[in-house]
Amino acid sequence: MNAPRISIVTPSFNQAPYLEETIQSILGQKYPNLEYIIVDGGSTDGSVDIIKRHAAQLAWWVSEPDAGQYDAINKGFARSTGEILGWLNADDKYLPWTFQVLAQIFSSVPQVEWISSLYPMLLDESGVAFQCTPARGFSREAFWRGEFLPECGWYAVGWIQQESTFWRRSLWERSGSRLNTEFQLAGDFELWARFFKDADLLGVPSPLGAFRFREGQRSQTQFKTYLEEAQSAFKRHGGRPPKPLESWALRKLHKITRFLERAQKRRTDLLHPDGICVRRLRTTQWEIRPH
């Protein structure tokens, strides 16, 4: 199998409790053409010692003050040379097969420019997976209707998981070769908007990355700010959310579609009649959810 160079950047700042797991999820895959870069913002919690233990397997690393997460990622990508790019924050993880899947897809299907998993995985604070809910797929039209920007008052179906998203260098270069540091939290969403102007996002029916829910993380404590930034990027790039009546109709259609799908699955005995066991987000409580 062809092994195209994969460049991964990890921005890090005082994430020592999780950093080792993140690094191992990357280096542990033993991918033969990996370029792994860690950009630390001057951590004081022991992170640098963790990085130094793996220095021989890193293409480059640095620990110095920066202007924030996206500045650090830009610094890392500026040093990269790989054909396939992605970044993984210092508390998240890849799956053991992630790079093999990337190599197979990007090598065998040259028209693919960026991909994301249809099975985004969520981890609890200890790194144990508790949810992997399938997405329906991606399209430019749906993105520009706001369907990948939930909790903004209009119809939406879910997020594009950053940890599970990868792209070709050619797309990165056509889109400006950097994350917009004007955004403190929603730089990923703003990058997706630029990508969607130039290429279709293709879904992959395999988990590729996992996001860790943990106490005190910015995505939780500053979620409102993230939404404000994401909405600003969405509208700046030409996004047009559905009007209230259209949103109402889309929600109703979604509920009807879900009901019909479940009814069909029951008829074919693909669902257990007693329901499923799920865990509530941001808690450690599991519950039985009926179909």
Could you list the spans in which at least 5 consecutive residues all have pLDDT below 50? none
The CATH architecture designation of the largest domain is Alpha-Beta Complex
Tally of contiguous helical segments: 10
Say what the CATH topology of the largest domain is: Spore Coat Polysaccharide Biosynthesis Protein SpsA, Chain A
Task: Chart the SSEs and their pairings.
Blueprint: E1 6-12, H1 16-27, E2 34-40, H2 47-53, E3 60-63, H3 69-78, E4 84-87, E5 93-94, H4 98-108, E6 114-117, E7 121-123, E8 129-132, H5 140-144, E9 165-168, H6 169-174, H7 187-196, E10 201-204, E11 209-212, H8 218-221, H9 223-236, H10 244-267, E12 276-279, E13 286-289
